[in-house]
Design brief:
- By secondary structure, this protein is an alpha+beta fold.
- It is built from 20 helices and 25 strands.
- Strand 24 and strand 25 form a beta hairpin.
- The chain is globular, with a radius of gyration of 29 Å.
């Protein structure tokens, strides 16, 4: 994908482009648009509706991807990261054996072979009902009056459906009145806007014909002719569905009112991305095309950091499985593994082959050839547990120095600026890093964190519900890491936990948790187990201040910078952590400009922190902002924080601008009732 710059193409599988092109049955191109690989994980993935300039499509499930991989030289591109694979297996099961990059269509004449054969992501037209922009005719995409036009090779953005002989909205067109019929002309048809969805992740077409006839058949025609009209009213747009065959009509406002549940059909259990139906007894809910709650991605990701322990057979299996057949064929005997190591290592970029013994490597090769399982072992899905290996590497100079010669990781220790030394104990410049991400499913209506992480509500990626691989991406970049003095943080934290204002935050979080959780979710999770400790609030606040300040001097926009907060109290399962990592990662060269690493130099880091703190001490909405705290039935999850002083883009914040408070970090002039000790007091000289 040449640095990830090439967009992923979408093949319109409703027209069966591979078969049609091979048979020379159509002049239409199969490419209708493109999205970046990262968008397939977060905004436009499997099961989502992707809005193109003139139509809407839905990426298919993984069952339909394989033939696109089969047509590519070398097959699928596999991402090797055993820790991420283990995390995916913890979510989906041990049957997942690979992490694959999405198929993509190169932007070169003819692709890899014949024109239009080498497609990207297969997709279907969805919704299937279209509305003519000239006459408001409403019909499915298969209706003979609609024609698909996509004939310009390098303009897939002009792909569209047209009403071939549209005569406009005229009474003469219906056979009434004395006005002469208009001359027909081509008019574009656009997706109809209404859908039916349910909390189990199903989505279906809105039953327009059944709706307008109130569940009965049309009295005048077997296949009625429908139109959609819209008027402005005092209550908002009034959309009417009209049957031209029998003059029946019905407004869409009935589908949105308090009694809509009794009028809408039951869910048919349709997973449109799989072209399949399942048993479902949930009520159908009206959904607008492109609504924010139509699709919520479920993704997992972590930093690909070096491992200190020796690789096991389970670690090697997914790596070996991604190698080309000719490489595996070269491993004929244990004595011939020297050449195999070099060949496999150069293809994967992994250092696993250099450290593993011949016995373990040969055992893994034999297990793979014998159809051995590819499980990486059970792994916790708790976000805190995922961060522990990263924390242990970044806080151990011996570990990150030992592995700094690898392809995807290089880190060096920097001197702590004298002005930060009272609180900051370590500074690490991460000159090279890699972040790997995988897509494990999606939900509708409720996001995963609103259903208590209930896995049975996540829509499947394959018809069987047992995928053997999942889509994944890898992004490279840079950053810097700060570690804080644990003794100082712990002493400060104990003071915060005794304050009344902290109890108001805890109660607000409990209320917010109960309100955010879907009524259909299991309510067994204790809200306090999801409530971050005071150290998280303070370090998270400092991270936001530094991101806003770094955007002015690093060469990156603030939306390109991301945070990773390591902040939890000690318990029997894990040691305490207090640190932050600010990075920029991208699938192209933006992630390797060196601007963030340069900020970790002592003189620049000190200036960055002090200027960020100075700016954070004042907010244009003070004193309202500096005195903010939840009261009564309020459930917002931040204190002295707002868009003017702390909030950043949601691409930068790992908690969507929650759990922030300048009072915990800085010595603000506020009423004693809400005043708190400031974590940065040792640096501020108080």
């Amino acid at each position: 994908m040449d640095g990830g710059l090439a967009p992923v193409s979408i093949g319109l599988t409703e027209l069966d482009p591979i078969a049609d092109v091979e048979a020379k049955a159509t002049k239409n191109r199969s490419k209708v648009g493109g999205v970046r690989p990262s968008a397939l994980l977060y905004t436009s993935g499997i099961g989502a509706t992707v809005d193109l300039p003139h139509l809407s499509v839905m990426p298919h499930g993984l069952d339909a991807w394989q033939r696109y991989y089969d047509r590519r030289p070398g097959g699928a591109d596999v991402i090797v990261e055993p820790r991420l694979l283990g995390l995916v297996q913890a979510h989906l099961g041990d049957h997942v054996a690979q992490l694959r990059k999405a198929p993509w269509a190169p932007d070169i004449p003819g692709g890899f072979g014949e024109d239009a054969l080498d497609l990207g992501i297969p997709a279907r037209v969805f919704p299937q009902w279209l509305r003519c922009t000239g006459c408001n005719l409403l019909a499915p995409v298969s209706h003979p009056i609609f024609e698909f036009k996509n004939v310009l090779k390098f303009r897939p953005d002009q792909a569209q459906f047209i009403h071939k002989d549209c005569k406009g909205w005229s009474v003469a067109a219906k056979g009434k009145g004395k006005a002469p019929a208009r001359k027909g002309r081509e008019q574009m048809a656009v997706p109809a806007r209404y859908l039916i969805a349910c909390v189990n992740g199903h989505i279906d077409e809105f039953p327009y014909a059944a709706w307008v006839h109130r569940g009965k058949a049309c009295s005048k025609a077997k296949i009625p002719q429908l139109r959609m009209r819209e008027w402005k009213s005092n209550l908002g747009p009034d959309v009417q569905i009209i049957c031209l065959s029998c003059d029946a009509s019905r407004g869409m406002l009935e589908a949105t009112g308090p009694k809509a549940g009794s009028k809408l059909p039951k869910c048919r259990g349709r997973h449109a991305h799989l072209d399949a139906f399942y048993t479902c007894d949930e009520p159908g809910k009206l959904m607008m095309l492109g609504a924010a709650n139509q699709w919520f991605a479920s993704t997992v990701g972590l930093l690909a950091l070096p491992r200190d322990e020796a690789a096991t057979v389970a670690d090697l299996l997914p790596v070996l499985q991604g190698l080309p057949p000719e490489v595996m064929a070269s491993a004929t005997t244990k004595e011939a593994l020297a050449g195999f190591r070099g060949w496999a290592g150069s293809l994967t970029g992994s250092d696993l082959f250099g450290a593993v013994t011949d016995d373990v490597l040969w055992e893994a090769i034999q297990a793979l050839k014998g159809g051995g399982a590819t499980s990486s072992g059970a792994m916790s899905t708790d976000p805190g547990d995922i961060l522990i290996p990263e924390w242990l590497v970044l806080t151990d100079e011996e570990k990150y120095t030992k592995h700094s010669g690898s392809v995807d990781f290089r880190a060096v220790r920097r001197q702590v600026p004298a002005s930060l030394a009272p609180l900051v104990t370590e500074v690490v410049a991460v000159e090279k890093l890699k972040k790997v991400n995988a897509f494990v499913g999606f939900t509708r209506i409720d996001a995963l964190d609103r259903i208590d992480d209930s896995k049975n509500r996540v829509a499947p990626l394959t018809r069987s519900g047992r995928p053997t691989w999942v889509p994944a991406t890898e992004d490279r970049g840079e950053g810097f890491f700060l570690q804080f003095d644990e003794a100082g943080v712990l002493a400060w934290e104990e003071k915060i936990l005794q304050l009344d204002v902290w109890e108001t935050y805890r109660k607000a979080h409990e209320l917010n948790f109960k309100r955010r959780t879907s009524r259909t979710a299991d309510s067994s999770i204790d809200p306090d187990s999801r409530f971050p400790a005071p150290r998280y609030w303070a370090i998270h606040t400092l991270s936001h201040l530094m991101i806003r300040q770094a955007a002015m001097s690093s060469g990156y926009g603030s939306a390109s910078l991301t945070e990773r907060i390591y902040a939890w109290r000690p318990d029997e399962d894990r040691p305490a952590a207090a640190g932050l990592l600010i990075t920029t990662t991208a699938s192209d060269s933006e992630g390797t400009l060196g601007g963030l690493v340069d900020l970790s130099r002592p003189e620049r880091l000190a200036a960055l922190v002090h200027e960020a703190v100075r700016r954070g001490g004042r907010c244009s909405s003070d004193p309202v902002c500096s005195h903010r705290r939840p009261r009564g039935k309020e459930d917002f999850l931040h204190g002295a924080a707002c868009h003017f002083c702390l909030f950043v883009s949601e691409t930068s914040c790992e908690r969507t601008n929650r759990f922030l408070d300048r009072r915990l970090l800085l010595d603000l002039m506020v009423d004693p009732e809400i005043a708190t000790p400031a974590l940065l007091d040792p640096i501020l000289g108080h």
